[in-house]
From TrEMBL:
Stretches for region Disordered: 1-28, 138-165, 322-352, 501-522, 631-657
Ranges of biased composition (kind: Low complexity): 8-28, 138-162, 325-344, 505-522
Protein name, as recorded: Uncharacterized protein
Compositionally skewed regions (Acidic residues) per UniProt: 646-657
Lineage: superkingdom: Eukaryota
Amino acid sequence: MLLPAHLRSSSGRICSSSSSSSSSSSSSRMHALMRLPVHPVPDALEPPRAPFGFEFLLQQLPPSAVGFFTSLRQQQQQLPLQQQLQLLAAARDFLLQNSEALKDYGAVQPRLQQQLQQRYQMLLQKLDEEKQQILARQQQQQQQAQEEDPQAQQQQQQQQQLAEDEAPLGAHGIAARVSLQQLRAALGVGESLDAATAKLLLQQQQQQQQQQREPEPVRLKPPAVLLTLDDIYGRVYNPQVLKKQLVYYLETEGAPTCRRLLRLNKGVFGKHEALLLLRELQQQVEQQQKKLLLQQLQQLQQQTDAAMAVIFKQREQIQKHLEKQQQQQQEQQQQQQQQQQQQQSSRHRRGRSHIEELKFALQQLEKQQQLAEEKHRQQQQQLQQQAIAAASEAARVLYRGFREHGSFRPKPLNHWKHRRKVAPDSLAPYILGRAGSTAWERHQVTSAFAACVSGGHLFAACKILRLQTEGLTRNARFRLRKAAAKARQRRYTLPAYLKATPADSSSSSSGSSSSSSSRFFGSCSTADVTFLRKVYLSTVRRPRVHAKLAEVASHWQQQQQDLALQQQLDALRARRDAERAKWFAAKGIDLQLLQQHARQLQLQPKEAGNIQGFFSSKDFNLQQWLEETPPGLLRPYEQQQQQQQQEEEALQEIGEE
């Protein structure tokens, strides 16, 4: 039976005391009580709180009002009073929940419980003090707004304006030495320049001169609500809250902040939840990039339209001017026909040169238009590529964040140990084709190799075998590969023949050379043949080339095995038949005659059924049949010799006649 945490120590002490009293040896020992540390241990002695401080605020307030980690210190000064009151109320509820949970937890160490209660009371007092200060500030603002009259406000405004005109515009740098009147006089703008614009101009100039020189002032004494969040703070354990933060900061700050958030709050999402959330965040990133890309494309289109409008306007003006010049030229030509030939030619030449300039300007505008369209197309493509790259980079950063979060298992560092093992069942005697290659490409490579082999270009064939081995097909071109394999025999026989001829003579002059050899080495010298031999040897030595050339044998392997098996079986049957015939001959039995009679009986099955009628006929003599020599037995040796002599004598008589 499991005991609660606050009773485990007491039960342990009871058991130890009972065991010590039962044994005499342990009665003399001193048992000291173990004192726990003052600070709470998270696993055993920490009270079961409600959600931690930051998580508690996120459940009650929007993320825009809460901020991200220490950004609360900067936002607290900028928030309105109403939101500050909301933060105070949320922190107060959080402290009250912790104190109630501490009471309901049970008997804890009194000292630890007193320390926690004192800290909670101190923080509650600070929250009340700050709340009273905020309320008093609100009342003062309301009273001031009610008491001030409009005339007094106008007078104050005039006085303030005069004071601002005469007073320096700032406290540092140039602004501390220049007033508004001096700046107006220096710029010569008059009263159109107000104090706010002047300060803004001086601030911009000062920022350009002094970039990153002075650090931003940090608040030294933060308010009580921030002290509460800093003192009582922990990781986010609620998946909904963490998802809310991720969605918000992905919109505002980007994927790196989400990755940092996931790294600092580990173990919240499981694998399935992380996959779904990662897909959702990636879709959100894609939507953001699409919106941004649409805005950029619209701006680019506007710029291109403006440039094209200028070009079109210039073209219209030039065309109008050209038409006007052409009309004037026609009128001048009609007038020049009545004048002298010299004046006619000079004026016509001047008008023609002006028209040519206008036409050249039109051509230049057309080129500018083409360049503008091409630039627009390139910029559009570049923006699309940048959007795709940004989306993929954000997705990669989010995936790394979830991997650091603990949802996904990281890749092993020792990749060489986790390399894919080759399954023996998946091995094949063929080389796989190149990834991404099509049937048309493989056909082109094979046809080029066939042309090289049939044309006798051994060097080109070796080059294709070296560089494009994977592109050659394996289920065809059997004769082609057979011809390529025969080149191994040729490279040993050809040099001996070529050494008998001069080095510069061609091998085709001799008729003793074979047609296949002359096709490959028809116009090669001894040095060329030696070089081709080296090329071929270095090509065939490569494992993948050797495997590609051996694919033919592996492709016809089953057929060759069946043929060899049949030949071996035929040889075995012939050997056994010879041994059987020899054994029967030693016993005096003619096995060949018996086999011949058996074949005849198989061919004539009807005659086999008449044997019974042969024995039962009237002409059958049993004694004579028994005295005759059986047809399957060999005759005695003497009878065989007599028969041979009779046959020889008959042959001699025939020869004499």
